[in-house]
């Protein structure tokens, strides 16, 4: 077992360990294995911040755990609330890097958008996160801690859905993503159904296959954004490695293995990927994969480039083409755009971290 280093103690960060590893850890210190299960439940199910809260543990073990405080792996340094109730939190990690996570209230429940990396290496032209460049992957504990923070903060609103659509490409951090999903869905963890989780990818095919092989019940959303390789190469450089024909084939494989219908996300870029020719080409592709098409109005990646468009009219153009097909067509309304919390806008709000300016 590889133990994760802590900031001050030179030993483990407990939240980076899963249940089995916590049991091994307690046993290696002469304690009973079941105490590891108790620590797991205290950290993740109850969200304990201190050893003093773990009252079901022997006093000697609680005293030993004091050296590993604080248990939290991130600190909220700023929270912004949009007029629609959407909350964006800026978290500082123990190494000083920052990430953002978004809480979206809905009717009687909430959805949370989670980050999986600090920055992103994929350089999609319409996404602010890609402008940061890539810093590092988040650990499983750092992913889960985003949920724990908002559970404490928004305790009156039940969390129903998790979407791995924040900063980073989740399937380039597959090991920690899968560990986090298992902790989030564990009955003695956060007990969130995997069927209520959606992993969004720009099209990392090996990660899609790994997700299906792991037997997870999560949904998959593929960020498509163009119906042809020429345009997709320009706006999403990852397409040069995993072109559309390969991506569609992998989507079919995932759908067959997981028994989940794929969602294709399509960011609307006026005059670029929403022309009649583009819509017809998109229809030809998507008829090969019974799926859901989610249209997403393009959000500005800086305060300077406001986007003016009649999004309802754009949706109608797509609807006229897709009506009657085996494809469910929806449009995602932007939430939290006023605080730069909408799709494609997360970037830690740290301009000094950007390695090139927005354009």
β-strand amount = 15-25%
User: Quick one: CATH class of the largest domain?
Assistant: Alpha Beta
What is the architecture of the largest domain at the second tier of CATH? Answer: Alpha-Beta Barrel
Question: If you consult CATH, what is the topology of the largest domain?
Answer: TIM Barrel
Low-pLDDT runs of 5+ residues are 1-10, 350-359
Layout of secondary structure:
Elements: H1 19-28, H2 34-44, H3 59-65, E1 74-81, E2 87-93, E3 98-105, E4 110-113, E5 117-119, H4 128-131, E6 134-137, H5 140-153, E7 159-164, H6 174-185, E8 197-201, H7 205-213, E9 219-223, H8 229-235, H9 244-258, E10 262-268, H10 276-286, E11 291-297, H11 311-322, E12 328-331
Helix pairs in contact: 1-2, 5-6, 7-9, 10-11
Q: Could you explain how this protein is built, in words?
A:
With 359 residues, this protein is an alpha/beta fold. It folds into 2 domains: 14-68, DNA polymerase, domain 1 (Orthogonal Bundle); 74-353, TIM Barrel. It contains 11 helices and 12 strands. The strands form 2 sheets. It has a 10-stranded mixed sheet with strand order 1-2-3-4-7-8-9-10-11-12. A two-stranded antiparallel sheet has the order 5-6. Helix 7 links the parallel strand 8 (197-201) and strand 9.
What's the gist of this structure?
This protein folds into two domains: 14-68, DNA polymerase, domain 1 (Orthogonal Bundle), CATH 1.10.150.530; 74-353, TIM Barrel (Alpha-Beta Barrel). It is built from eleven helices and twelve strands.
